[in-house]
Write a structure and sequence with these properties.
Two copies of one chain form a homodimer. By secondary structure, chain A is mainly alpha-helical. The first copy, chain A, has six helices and three strands. The longest helix of chain A has 25 residues. At the A-B interface, helix 1, helix 2 and helix 6 of A face helix 1, helix 2 and helix 6 of B. The first copy, chain A, binds a DNA duplex through helix 2, helix 3 and helix 4.
Chain lengths: 139, 139
DNA sequence: TATTGTTATACTCTATAACTATA
DNA sequence: TATAGTTATAGAGTATAACAATA
């Protein structure tokens, strides 16, 4: 039982509402890119130019390794990611975005991160304050 | 292309990161309650004492009606919700939480809304400011 | 005729358990 | 022996299309 300030709980509840509504809106963005929500999550985690082991991906997705195999199978079949054995440990498979995958990811990030018009309700100074407070809590 | 203040985009990006990380944490909360993430979403949408038609649920979940049938089948089989034909339009099926479902929902909300310790980094005044700004954007 | 929900079907997501290859 | 990933299997989530009951 942590002792939070009196507003932390309500602020967090708003953020949880947001997450659940995002849960409903991600499928629409995904469908626009002809991807599933889970595939979008994988693409989002694979930053361009950075190699990620399948096990790392399983940890980040908080899912079983066997699940990652299937996700990667389908993304690889569509030419969006590449799967190569690691040079230093051949048990490990290393994932990278293909150029096509990087383009798909860029499109995804663009769709996901265009802020809702409701942000316009805040002044520039308020937007800056919001950003700073969120950064301290979430980063 | 909307014109947002310079910080809106970054603030929104933080919120999207949060949503995707929630996407990874919801399954753990769900497993604790022996539910799936989708079932948690349904339970969260069914407020105690309020009747919801299946079609409304499909809209709120942004999914096909046929999918709701399966979700409701499983929740009803576990005694968490009840499905009754509407008195005014017998095509419509109306959903309500059972007492057991209401208890499961209360537990779910409690688990979901306990704020992360990182909120402690903010002073009480800052938490209040954050709440007010979020409320204006998200409500 | 139009609408609400169900059924049939197919595919994806997900976990568990058994397996292979490598360390 | 331990670890990374795969395969087999089963159940849940999801959409599309065809259907039944009701309006």
């Amino acid at each position: 039982m942590t002792h939070q300030g009196p507003h932390a709980c309500r602020a967090w509840r708003l953020l949880v509402e947001l997450s659940l509504s995002q849960r409903a809106s991600l499928p629409a963005v995904a469908a626009e890119l002809d991807l599933s929500p889970a595939q979008c999550h994988v693409l989002h985690l694979l930053e361009p130019g950075r190699a990620v082991a399948m096990g790392e991906l399983a940890s980040a997705l908080a899912c079983d390794a066997s699940n990652v195999t299937g996700l990667v199978d389908r993304l690889e079949a569509r030419g969006l990611i590449s799967r190569q054995p690691s040079a230093s440990d051949r048990r490990v498979k290393v994932l990278t975005l293909t150029p096509r995958g990087a383009r798909a990811r860029a499109l995804l990030v663009e769709r996901l991160t265009s802020p809702p018009v409701a942000f316009g309700r805040l002044s520039a100074a308020e937007q800056r304050t919001l950003l700073e407070l969120l950064a301290r809590v979430l980063e």
